[in-house]
Amino acid sequence: MISAAEVEAELNQPGRSKRTHDQNILLLALSLVAFYAAGLISATWISVTVLVAVLLIHEAGHWVGMKYFGYSDLRVFFIPFFGAAVSGNETKVSGERRAVVSLLGPVPGVFIGIGCGFIYLKWRQPVLLQFAITSVLLNGFNLLPIYPLDGGQFMQAVVFSRHPFVETVFKVVAVLILTGLALQLSSIQLGILAFVTLLLTREGYFQGRITRRLRDIMNGRQIPETEHMPVEYIEAILPDLGAGVPEKKVKVKFLANRTRSVWRRIAQPIPSFRSSVVLLAVYVGIFILGIAGSIVFLGVNKALSEKAVITHEITFEGQSVAVEEIYRNQHKISRAHLNDHGLYDGFSTAWTMKGIKLEDGSWHNGYRDGPWHYYNADGMVAYIVTFENGRPVKDQIPQDDGYGLIDVPPDQWPFSVKHSSQNSPQGTKVKFQGN
Ligand SMILES: [Zn+2]
User: Fold this and answer.
1) What does the alpha-carbon distance between residue 18 and residue 289 come to, in Å, rounded to a whole number?
2) Mean per-residue pLDDT of the chain
3) d(Cα 230, Cα 220) in Å, to the nearest integer?
4) Ligand 1 center to residue 1 CA distance, Å?
5) Ligand 1 centre from 108 Cα, in Å?
6) How confident is the model at residue 260 (pLDDT cuts 50, 70, 90)?
7) Domains of the chain: which residue ranges?
8) Is the pLDDT reported for residue 279 higher than 90?
C-alpha cells in the first residue's frame, strides 16, 4: 500500500522531465522530417509545405499564450499523419487563461487564412488559395466544440468544467461525434482521436469523482495556496485515488499525477460570469468567421476547378475521334479534337463560363495551325492570328465596316500575339488512351 507521504515526495521531485533547449529544437526538427515523410506518401510537397506552415502558425499561437501565462517545459512538435502540438506544464493557470490559450491556436490562422484568400483574389497565385483554404478549414475544424479539439478545450474550460457530470456527458458526446465522423469520412486519424478521447473521458470522470470527494472532505474550508495538494488531503483521498485502475497498475507516479489533476480542479478558479460571456462572444465570433471563410474559399475553389472529360464522336467518314471537353464549375469552357497520341489535332473552341465564345481554330499534332479567331465580349471577331506549326505568322483585324481584314505589321503585334509561340505540343490533361 502506497502512503500519502510517498505520493507527496513524488510530487516534490525536482526537475521532473526537464529538457534542454537543444533537445526541444531537435524534437521539433526530427518530428518535422517525419511529418514530411509521412505527408509525401499521399500528397505533393507543396501541399505538405502549406500544411506545415498552417500548423506552425497554429501552434505558435498556443505557444505565445502558454509562454505569456507562465507554462513551463514548453515543447512544439509534429505528429506524423496527425498534425502538431505544443505541450507544457501549468501549475497555477485559471480557466480564463486556459480558454485564451485554446483560442490563440485557431484565431491567427482564421485571420491569416482569410487575408490570404483576399490577396489571392487580387494576385491569383494558386498557392495562396490553397493556403487560405487549408488555414481556414483546419482552424475552423479545430474550433468545433468537440473535446479535445481547441473549441472543445475552450468549452470545457469556460462552461463544462463547472460540474463533473456535465463534463462527462460533454466528453461522451464528443466521443460519439468523433466516432461518427471517423466512420463517415473513413478516417483512421479521427478513429484514433475518438479512442484517445474515450480514455480521457474515463480518466476525467474518475478525477471528477475524486475532486467531489475532496470537496466534501474540505467542507467549505479555505483552499490553501500551495502548489501541490497538502499531505493531509492526500491522506484523506488516498483510498479513492486509485479508482478505476487495476490494483497492480497503481503506482506512486500515477497517484501523483491524479493528485496533481485533482488539485488543479480544486485550486484553479473557474471563469467568472462576466469573463465567460466575453470569452464566449469572442469564441462564437471567430467560429462564425471560420465557417464563413471556409464556405467562401471552398466556393471560389470549386468555381475555379476544372474537369476534363473525353468522349468519342463519329466523323462523317465513319471514324471514331476522341474529343476533350473541359468544364469549369459545370460550364463547358473548351472542346478540342485529339489524335491517337492525346495531342490536340483538328478543330477546337473555347468559351467563357457564361458561354460567350473566346476563340476557335485548328491544331495539328499539338500545335496551333492555320487561322485562329479571337472574339470580343459581343461575340464579334476581334482579331485573327494565323499560325504555322505553333508559330504566329500573321495578325489581322477586321475593317471598321466589318468586311475584309487589315494586316497588322509584325512590329505592331500586341504582346499576346508576339509571345504566342509554342515550345512544345499541347494535349489533353486527362490520362489518355488512343482508340
Ligand atoms: Zn490547437
Assistant:
1) 39
2) 87
3) 16
4) 40
5) 11
6) confident
7) 4-104+144-271, 306-418
8) yes
| φ, ψ (nearest 5 deg) of residue 151 | -60, -35
pTM of this structure: 0.71
Cell, residue 321 = 475521334
Could you give the CA distance from residue 59 to residue 37 in angstroms, rounded to a whole number?
20
User: In angstroms, what is the span from residue 62 Cα to ligand 1's centroid?
Assistant: 7
Q: In the prediction, which pLDDT does 240 show?
A: 81
Confidence of residue 396 (pLDDT cuts 50, 70, 90): very high
Please tell me whether residue 207 adopts helix, strand or coil conformation. helix
432 pLDDT more than 70 = no
In order, the DSSP letters of 325-374 are EEEETTEEEEEEEE-TTSBEEEEEEEE-TTS-EEEEEEEETTEE-EEEEE
* Packed helices 273-304 and 106-123: angle between N→C axes, nearest 10 degrees: 30
**Residue 138 Cα, ligand 1 centroid: separation in angstroms?**
10
Inform me whether the pLDDT recorded for 9 exceeds 90.
Answer: no
In order of 27, 106, 285, the CA distances from 61 in angstroms are 19, 8, 18
Report residues near ion ligand 1: CB below 5 Å. Answer: 105, 150
- How far is the centre of ligand 1, averaged over its atoms, from the C-alpha of 22 (Å)? 24
pLDDT band at 285 (very low <50, low <70, confident <90, very high): very high
Which is it for the CA torsion 62, 66, 67, 73, positive or negative?
negative
The C-alpha cell at 318 is: 465513319
